[in-house]
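In response to reviewer comment 3 from the previous cycle, which asked for concrete evidence that the modeling workflow produces usable outputs, we include below a single protein chain processed end to end. The sequence was submitted unchanged, and the resulting structure tokens are shown without manual editing.
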Amino acid sequence: MSTGREARRSRLSPTQRALLERRLRGIALSAEAVRAERSAARPGSAPPPPGGGAGADTLDDLPAIRPPGHPPLVDDELWAALAACGCETARRLAAAPELAAEAAQEAHLDRLAVAAVGVALERLGVFQAAGERRSVAGLIRDRGIAPQFHKALRRWLEMLAEERLVERDGEEYVAAAPLPPPALAGLLDAEERRLYSEKLPAVLTGELHPLEFYLPGGSSASAEASYRELPVFRYCNGIAAAVVAAQVRALPPASAIRLLEVGAGTGGTTASLLPLLPPERTAYVYTDVSRFFTDLGRSRFAAWERLRYRELDLERHPRDQGFPASCCDWIVAAHVLHATRDLVETLGHLRWLLAAGGILLLLEETRFLRRYNFSMGFLPGFDHFEDYALRPLHPLLPSGRWGELLLAHGFAGVAACTEPGSPPERLGVDVLLARAR
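The workflow returned the following structure tokens.
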């Protein structure tokens, strides 16, 4: 079985694996794949030295751009203006018809997700009689489910409990009737039923790699395009661009701004912000945990000579990775912080990087949509979290909980831009601004 699984995975190129896994809260590309991809992209060329090119990626001068004791870029008045700008931009962008249309589909997609789980469990021979009792551990043991999917499996069962198709009894779940109920199964056409009943169990048992479920044939183009073009991402990037533009307009004469982007990936948010920044007065550090993506950024933004590229693992102290304390005025974190092991630890590392009064610009998913059960919810990068007291079932926090967490761990003010009840809120995205103490 192992040989067959590896053969199926080999049909995806290193680029396709890397891009999709990163964009769906992915996993860092392996060193072997990075070397193979770099070699294929630049045959005969030697890789650049660790940490980037000659001098361009040094961070030693960042503290000198705004020395300790220098007035912060963001005072109380500007902070209030930035928060107001973010909220006003969010209200305007939330009125986009395509956002409302997408949000209107969620209730139907929720029901389809329940139906898909029902037919998958039917194929596994699970919950086929009223009163049948199952636990997550028992299903893993009795049905050959790969242990790494225990969080995803628990989410499936909790979803069924929300629909009262099973009842939770301690660690066990008890079927109310055989799954799936005919009315629920009827929501799927014949092809959908075949897809979910065959492929979802195969993913759970390790016979099918999740990427093959998302990308039949191995193409990652549609996934990459979705992160540029989906209405929710245009919404988030639009708010981010508006508040950064407001900061640039307020820059004191002859003053510079230091921005550091974490988890920059393929540069979707970067591309929204760079045109707004005065090159001669900007220090922008493009970081990611993977060298693959810092190299990708270096290639994509080659025209921006003042960009610096560095690897940064948010789960290790930045000091141990060569980053000076208080080295930036803004940190941009787009759809990445939830993928870290411990959010309190992560926020501590970010706060260490930020100067007093600095701004964390946070773009985040804030609601677990049921359709995630068949996309990002399968990937180890998504379920990397271990702070179970804070995040017991999935890694996403609602906006209000993000605000509480930020205020408790190094930030003096928080503004959440998305209005409750708006289409973006129903689609589970928000842009938050937090001001460092």
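The CA atoms of residues 16 and 220 lie 5 Å apart. We consider this sufficient to address the reviewer's concern, and the full set will be provided in the supplementary archive.
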